[in-house]
UniProtKB/TrEMBL annotation:
<feature type="transmembrane region" description="Helical">
    <location>
        <begin position="294"/>
        <end position="313"/>
    </location>
</feature>
<keyword id="KW-1003">Cell membrane</keyword>
<keyword id="KW-0430">Lectin</keyword>
<dbReference type="InterPro" id="IPR011009">
    <property type="entry name" value="Kinase-like_dom_sf"/>
</dbReference>
<dbReference type="GO" id="GO:0030246">
    <property type="term" value="F:carbohydrate binding"/>
</dbReference>
<keyword id="KW-0067">ATP-binding</keyword>
<keyword id="KW-0723">Serine/threonine-protein kinase</keyword>
<feature type="binding site">
    <location>
        <position position="378"/>
    </location>
    <ligand>
        <name>ATP</name>
    </ligand>
</feature>
<keyword id="KW-0812">Transmembrane</keyword>
<dbReference type="InterPro" id="IPR008271">
    <property type="entry name" value="Ser/Thr_kinase_AS"/>
</dbReference>
<keyword id="KW-0808">Transferase</keyword>
<dbReference type="InterPro" id="IPR001220">
    <property type="entry name" value="Legume_lectin_dom"/>
</dbReference>
<keyword id="KW-0732">Signal</keyword>
<protein>
    <recommendedName>
        <fullName>non-specific serine/threonine protein kinase</fullName>
        <ecNumber>2.7.11.1</ecNumber>
    </recommendedName>
</protein>
<dbReference type="InterPro" id="IPR013320">
    <property type="entry name" value="ConA-like_dom_sf"/>
</dbReference>
<keyword id="KW-0472">Membrane</keyword>
<feature type="domain" description="Protein kinase">
    <location>
        <begin position="346"/>
        <end position="625"/>
    </location>
</feature>
Length: 673
C-alpha cells in the first residue's frame, strides 16, 4: 500500500513540476492583438489602464507629471546557463491632447517592479537624476520632448537607456525603406500607430520602428554592440512592459498590440487587422480647428465664387461683337472697356441726353498725354443684318470734312448695341437752347449764324462730298453747339440703320413727324426731303417752337400752316419767337420765307441746298411767291393724319410707336418734355 501512495505522491509532484514548467515555457512567448480588461496577466501601475471596449492599453491619462506602467505579470526567466536573448514587437500610438506634448513612453526590461524613487517627465517613470539606484533597467524610449540635462538629441527620437535616462545610443525617429533605399523620417506624436521592434542576441541590441503598414525594416534604426546585458539580465527573472510619463505637457500613450518572445524565432506575429484603434479625442482644440478649417474652406469657396463671378461679370460687361470684316476698320474700333471706363460705366453723371437713336453719354478718353472728351451714343440694335453696310457707311462718313459737321471718331459693336463715338459738343443740342424757357434766349444773330452753318453743312453733304449724302433727319435736336455756339450737324445717315431694320414695312416711314416731306413715304428719302426738313428747321429756329405743338390753339398747331397764316394776315413777323428782342426784320422775314419755300409740298418747287445757302447769305434774290402760291403753307399727309389731330398724346404715342421709334420720339417732344 505504502509504495502505491508514495508512487501516487511522486506522480502528483512530477505532474505539478511538469505543469509549472510548461506554464513557464508558455509564458516566455506571448502575443496581444489588443488588450482585454479582464486579463490579469497585465499588471497596471499609476495612471495606466485598459480602456474598456476599446481594448487599448493607455499609460497616462492626460494628467501632468504623471507616470503609468503596464507590465507582464510573469517575469521572464533568463537562466544562467543560457545565452541572453529576447525579441519584442509592439504597436503603440502617441496622441497629442494639448498644445505641448511630453514626454513619451518606453519599453522596459526590469529586474524589479518596485520603481521607488523613479520620476516622471524625462525619466519615463523608470529613472531619476541618479540613474536607477534600486534596480537594473534596460529601456527603449520613444521621446517626444528634448530635455537638455539627459542629453536628448531632439524632441522626436528613439534611444536605448541602460540604468539611466541618458541614452547609450539615440537616433531621430525614422525608418529604413527598402523601396526607396533611404531613411524616412517619422513623427512619433502624430497619433498614428507606430511599430517598434526590439531584438537582443549575443551582445547586439537592435531597435527598429516603422509605420503601421510597413514591414520590419531590413536595417535597424539603432544597432548597438556595446551593450552587455549579461550583467543586468543573466540568471535573473526579468519583468517586461511599458512605462509612460508626462511632464508639464501631456500626451496620450497607447499600446495597441504586443508580442514578446525569449527566442527571436518563436516571436508570434501581431495581427495588424485585429488591432484596436487608438482613440483620437475630438477635443475642443481639434473641434475648433476642424470648424475653422470648414469655415476657411467655405470662405475660400465663397471668395473663389466671387472671383469667378466677377470674372464672368467683367467678361460679360466688356463683351463685344467683332467680325472679320471689321478688321479693315481697326483704328476706328474702340474697345467697349475703354468706352465703359471713359463714361464711368455709363453713369448717370455722364448722361448728356436721349437722342433719336439712343442715349448719349459724355466720355473722357485717355489719349496718351492729352485727355480727349467724346460723346458716346448707345444705339440699341437688334438686327445684325445690314450692320456691315451700316458700319461701312459710318466709316465712310469719317471722310466727310466740314467745319459744321460733328466729326465721328469711331465705333464699337456689342450684341444688340452699337456705340458711336463722336467729338464732344460742350453746348449740347440746339433744341435745348430753343425750347428751354429758363435759360437765356439764344439771340437772333446767333440763330441766324447757326442756320447758315447748318445750311452750308447740308449743302456740302448734298453736293461737295464724294457721293451725295442724305441726312434724313434734319431737326433742331440733331444740331449741336460747340464751345463757340457754332452749329454742328450731327447724326447724319443714322436713320439708314433703321430703314434696314428688322421690319421692312417701316422702311419708308423713318424720319420725324413734322419734318417729313410728303413724298418720303412713297419715294423714300432724297436731297429734296432733306430740304423740306431744313425748311421746317428754319421756321422752328425762327419761331422758337416745334413744328407740331398740341398745347396751343388749333390754328397755331402746325407751324408751316401758322407761319403762312401770319403772312396772309397782318405780318409774317407775328410768327417769330416773341422772346427775340433785337433782330433784323428783313432777315427774319427772309428766313421765314426760305423756310416756307423749302417746305413746299411739291418737291420740284423746293430750292436746292446750294441755293438756300445763297438765299441765306443774301447773295441770291428769293423767287417771287405768295402765301397763296401752290404748295406753300400746306401740310403733309403725315402731319394731317386725323389721329394726330384728335388723339390724346399718350395713345398717340403708342399708336405711332409701331411705325418707327423716331416718330414716337418726336411726338413725345411735341407734348413738351
Ligand atoms: C488619472 O489617473 C490618476 C491615477 O494615477 C487618477 O487619480 C486620476 O483621477 C486620473 N485622471 C483622469 C482624468 O482620469
Ligand atoms: C541622488 O543621490 C543623492 C546623493 O546620493 C541624493 O541626495 C539624492 O536625493 C538622490 N536623488 C534622487 C532623485 O534620488
Ligand atoms: C541587428 O542588426 C544587424 C544589422 O542589420 C544584423 O546583422 C543583426 O543580425 C541584428 N541582430 C539582431 C539580434 O536582430
Ligand atoms: C559581458 O559581461 C559579462 C559579465 O560582466 C562578461 O563575463 C562577458 O564577457 C561580457 N561579454 C562581452 C562580450 O563583453
Amino acid at each position: 500500500m505504502f509504495p502505491m501512495i508514495r508512487g501516487a505522491l511522486l506522480g502528483t509532484i512530477w505532474m505539478m513540476i511538469y505543469c509549472v514548467c510548461t506554464s513557464f515555457q508558455q509564458e516566455t512567448t506571448f502575443v496581444y492583438n489588443g488588450f482585454d480588461q479582464g486579463d490579469h496577466r497585465i499588471h497596471l501601475q499609476g495612471g495606466a489602464k485598459i480602456i474598456p471596449k476599446k481594448d487599448v492599453l493607455q499609460l497616462t491619462n492626460a494628467t501632468t507629471t504623471q507616470i503609468g506602467r503596464a507590465f507582464f505579470e510573469q517575469p521572464i526567466e533568463f537562466k544562467p546557463s543560457e545565452p541572453v536573448s529576447f525579441s519584442t514587437h509592439f504597436v503603440c500610438a502617441l496622441v497629442s491632447v494639448s498644445e505641448v506634448s511630453s514626454h513619451g513612453m518606453a519599453f522596459f526590461v526590469s529586474h524589479s517592479t518596485d520603481f521607488e524613487g523613479a520620476e516622471p517627465s524625462r525619466y519615463f517613470g523608470l529613472f531619476n537624476a541618479n540613474g536607477s539606484a534600486s534596480t537594473r533597467v534596460l529601456a527603449v524610449e520613444l521621446d517626444i520632448a528634448k530635455a537638455v540635462d539627459v542629453l536628448d538629441i531632439n524632441d522626436n527620437h528613439v534611444g536605448i537607456d541602460v540604468n539611466s535616462a541618458v541614452s547609450v545610443v539615440a537616433a531621430p525617429a525614422s525608418y529604413f525603406s527598402d523601396k526607396e533605399g533611404r531613411m524616412i523620417d517619422m513623427k512619433l506624436v502624430s497619433g498614428d500607430p507606430i511599430q517598434v521592434w526590439v531584438d537582443y542576441e549575443g551582445t547586439t541590441l537592435n531597435v527598429s520602428i516603422a509605420t503601421l503598414h510597413n514591414k520590419k525594416p531590413s536595417r535597424p534604426l539603432l544597432s548597438s554592440t556595446s551593450i552587455n546585458l549579461t550583467e543586468i539580465v543573466q540568471g535573473r527573472r526579468m519583468f517586461v512592459g511599458f512605462s509612460g510619463s508626462t511632464g508639464s505637457g501631456v500626451v496620450n500613450q497607447y499600446v495597441l498590440g504586443w508580442s514578446f518572445s525569449k527566442l527571436m524565432a518563436s516571436l508570434q506575429k501581431i495581427d495588424i487587422s485585429k488591432l484596436p484603434k487608438a482613440p483620437h479625442p475630438i477635443n475642443k482644440r481639434n473641434y475648433t480647428s476642424l470648424l475653422s478649417d470648414v469655415l476657411l474652406s467655405l470662405l475660400a469657396l465663397f471668395v473663389l465664387g466671387l472671383l469667378f463671378g466677377a470674372y464672368m461679370y467683367r467678361r460679360n460687361l466688356y463683351a463685344e461683337v467683332k467680325e472679320d470684316w471689321e478688321n479693315a476698320y481697326g483704328p476706328l474700333r474702340y474697345s467697349y472697356k475703354s468706352l465703359y471706363k471713359a463714361t464711368k460705366g455709363f453713369s448717370k453723371d455722364e448722361f448728356i441726353g436721349r437722342g433719336g437713336f439712343g442715349e448719349v453719354y459724355k466720355g473722357t478718353l485717355p489719349r496718351s498725354t492729352e485727355m480727349r472728351e467724346v460723346a458716346v451714343k448707345k444705339v440699341a440694335h437688334d438686327g445684325e443684318q445690314g450692320m456691315k453696310q451700316f458700319v461701312a457707311e459710318i466709316v465712310c462718313m469719317r471722310s466727310l470734312k466740314h467745319r459744321s459737321l460733328v466729326p465721328l471718331l469711331g465705333y464699337c459693336r456689342r450684341k444688340h448695341e452699337l456705340l458711336l463715338v463722336s467729338e464732344y459738343m460742350p453746348n449740347g443740342s440746339l433744341d435745348y437752347h430753343l425750347f428751354n424757357d429758363d435759360g437765356p434766349t439764344l439771340p437772333w444773330g446767333r440763330r441766324f449764324a447757326i442756320l447758315k452753318d447748318i445750311a452750308s453743312a447740308l449743302s456740302y453733304l448734298h453736293t461737295e462730298a464724294d457721293q451725295v449724302v442724305i441726312h434724313r433727319d434734319i431737326k433742331a435736336s440733331n444740331v449741336l453747339l460747340d464751345a463757340e455756339f457754332n452749329g454742328r450737324l450731327g447724326d447724319f445717315g443714322m436713320s439708314r440703320l433703321y430703314e434696314r431694320g428688322a421690319d421692312p414695312t417701316t422702311t419708308a416711314a423713318v424720319g420725324t413727324v413734322g419734318y417729313m416731306a410728303p413724298e418720303v413715304t412713297t419715294f423714300g428719302p432724297s436731297t429734296g426731303t432733306d430740304v423740306y426738313a431744313f425748311g421746317v428747321f428754319l421756321l422752328e429756329v425762327t419761331c422758337g417752337r416745334r413744328p407740331v405743338e398740341l398745347r396751343v390753339p388749333a390754328e397755331e398747331r402746325f407751324l408751316i400752316k401758322w407761319v403762312c397764316e401770319c403772312w396772309r394776315g397782318s405780318s409774317l413777323l407775328d410768327a417769330m419767337d416773341p422772346r427775340l428782342k433785337e433782330f433784323s426784320s428783313g432777315e427774319v422775314e427772309r428766313v421765314l420765307k426760305i423756310g416756307l419755300l423749302c417746305a413746299n409740298l411739291a418737291p420740284d418747287a423746293r430750292p436746292s441746298m446750294e441755293q438756300v445757302v445763297q438765299y441765306l447769305n443774301g447773295n441770291l434774290a428769293l423767287p417771287e411767291f405768295w402765301p397763296y402760291s401752290p404748295g406753300i403753307g400746306a401740310l403733309t399727309p403725315t402731319t394731317l393724319s386725323p389721329e394726330l389731330l384728335s388723339l390724346e398724346s399718350q395713345s398717340l404715342a403708342s399708336s405711332l410707336s409701331n411705325t418707327s421709334m423716331f416718330i414716337t420720339h418726336t411726338v413725345l417732344y411735341g407734348n413738351g418734355r
